[in-house]
Amino acid sequence: MADEKFDAIVVGGGPAGLSAAYVMAKAGMQVIVVERGEYCGAKNVFGGIFFTNVMRELIPDFLKDAPIERNITKRRFAFLSSDGEFGGDFKFDRFNKDFANNSFTVLRAKFDKWFSEKVEAAGAMIITGAVVDDFILKDGKIAGVKARMDDGELYGDVVVLADGVNSLLAKKLGFHKELSPDSTIVGVKEILSLPEEKIRDRFGLNGNEGVAYEYFGYAAKGAIGSGFVYTNKDTISVGVGATIKSLLEHKLNPNDVLEHFKNHPAIRPLVRDSEQKEYSAHLIPDGGFKKFSKLYGDNVMVAGDAAGFVNATLFHEGTNLAMETGKLAGETAVEAFKKKDYSSESLSLYHTRLKNSFSLRDMKQFKNSSETLDKNPQLFDKYPDMIGDLIAELFTVDGEAKWPKERRLAMKLLTSENPFRLLKTAIDMRRVII
Amino acid sequence: MKHFTSMEDKLGLDKFTAFEKSHLKIKPGSDPLVVERKLFICPAKVYELNDKGEPIVSFENCLECGTCRVAAPDEVDWMYPQGGYGVTFKFG
Ligand SMILES: Cc1cc2nc3c(=O)[nH]c(=O)nc-3n(C[C@H](O)[C@H](O)[C@H](O)COP(=O)(O)OP(=O)(O)OC[C@H]3O[C@@H](n4cnc5c(N)ncnc54)[C@H](O)[C@@H]3O)c2cc1C
Ligand code: SF4
């Protein structure tokens, strides 16, 4: 490959890299995507809901052949106590129509592969089974990348780094420091198969409708984290995620947390009689805006998880941020290609576009969320049972008159927790949530 | 519910193609007890101590998440496995 030169090299064939490549190839640039997996998607794991607002811009008729599992029409947010759950959900029929609220469950091994085929059809070249370890520098500037294989040198005018959360390459450039244990979440997940009919009956669904259930509180066995249950066509995705710091502190292995979650009385009935198909693990960068990487330099831009674009609050958005940042990096590269100027100054257009995009604006809004949760561990160990007990007692039918019972429970709450701390936690939580 | 709970059985669900050389190392000079102090966090239980108290790294079971790298940056020497090797997810 040594003598070939591309207009652009994209490292990583996930949603960020594929979006960048798609935009550049459509504009007539010579693009190569380098992916370490056997195929695009082979290494990729998420919850999850693929949010398709950016996909709709790039490939408006994607629903024609994209491997979609279900339209998410119902979402539930619940708090687990040690023996119960309390929470709220919403379900709207409008989410079942037309664009389905841009919220679809997908399986990444299939979905990313499908997307990569669209990118190839748009004219980009994709090599799989090749891991990029380093850059090629010329006069101190990036001139290409080195893949760990014979003849692995690839030359290009601009490199889009979309190598995901473990971006060893962005680290190598000094664009960001190492991920920190308090703001990095490890997620583990199982795919469980169940007949379609059973999934519809169990979750109360028609046709292609699906649910996304998110569980907070005691979902991660007391660690700072959450759990999820999502419905696919004939499988369900069940998983938990927790910060590395709090797992270390609680001496918990993520798989033990997952076992605990699957056996919780609120979850067990949802997963019973199913057959295990796959077990996986993946990180989520939850450092937010404060831990962002530098986003561009001479001949290089960073997009998606590699730069830290994940909104892990209630919204659990990552795929759309990856696609948006990839798309904007691609558009910036197209402008640079026209000007034949890939200097840092020229690529600063990427940052300008990000500032006007939902991607950077959302990251700024939630910039304190992981820190806030880290400072409020009581939400994950003490409060779930404290609040759960109050609700359970209030609704226990035992002949106690309501007024004295309510007073007794209010007193109980105030003696088990400092009211100011309670109030402060409530205020902190509001900032994390909306 | 007759689900697998042991790590061995769960990893048996996945497709792995092991490369001849390990992509994971415990840095020379590290205290082997890092395995008990921190590396218990590995979701695939790749790190264990043998009877002699020496660390064993079953790299062929690695799910390539990066957790060990973040949990013990001073002790773990981490890189991606050779392209095309390692775990291949069918669902993801
Ligand atoms: C447990 C969990 C649940 C989640 N749930 C959701 C959800 O419900 N909704 C949502 O929107 N988001 C969710 N996310 C986040 C979402 O998955 C990510 O934000 C998104 O995948 C990021 O896309 P990306 O393209 O930046 O990175 P990735 O999807 O990680 O893609 C990076 C690609 O680069 C390749 N690669 C890496 N290094 C190299 C290299 N050196 N050489 C060659 N190739 C390389 C990888 O193999 C991979 O294909 C979740 C994440 C996790 C872990
Ligand atoms: S990368 Fe993940 S699965 Fe592999 S050894 Fe490290 S913690 Fe374990």
Would you mind describing this structure in some detail?
The complex is a heterodimer of chains A (434) and B (92). With 434 residues, chain A is of the alpha/beta class. Chain A is built from 15 helices and 17 strands. Chain A has helices at residues 15-26, 53-58, 108-121, 168-172, 196-203, 244-249, 254-262, 268-271, 319-339, 344-355, 358-365, 369-375, 383-394, 402-416, 419-433, and strands spanning 5-11, 31-34, 49-51, 68-80, 85-91, 103-106, 125-127, 132-138, 141-147, 153-161, 184-193, 209-217, 225-231, 235-243, 275-285, 296-297, 300-302. Chain B has one domain: Alpha-Beta Plaits (2-Layer Sandwich). Chain B has 3 helices and 6 strands. Chain B has helices at 7-11, 34-37, 67-71; strands at 15-17, 24-26, 47-49, 55-57, 76-78, 86-88. In chain B, the strands form 3 sheets. Chain B has a two-stranded antiparallel sheet with strand order 1-6. In chain B, strands 2-5 form a two-stranded antiparallel ribbon. In chain B, β3 and β4 form a beta hairpin. The radius of gyration of chain B is 14 Å and the shape is globular. Chain B starts with 6 loop residues before the first helix and ends with a strand. At the A-B interface, α3, β11, α6, α7 and β15 of A face α1, α3 and β6 of B. The structure holds flavin-adenine dinucleotide (FAD) and iron/sulfur cluster. Flavin-adenine dinucleotide (FAD) binds at residues 11-17, 34-37, 40, 43-49, 51, 131-132, 162-164, 187, 189, 239, 241, 282, 284, 304-306, 310, 316-320, 322 of chain A.
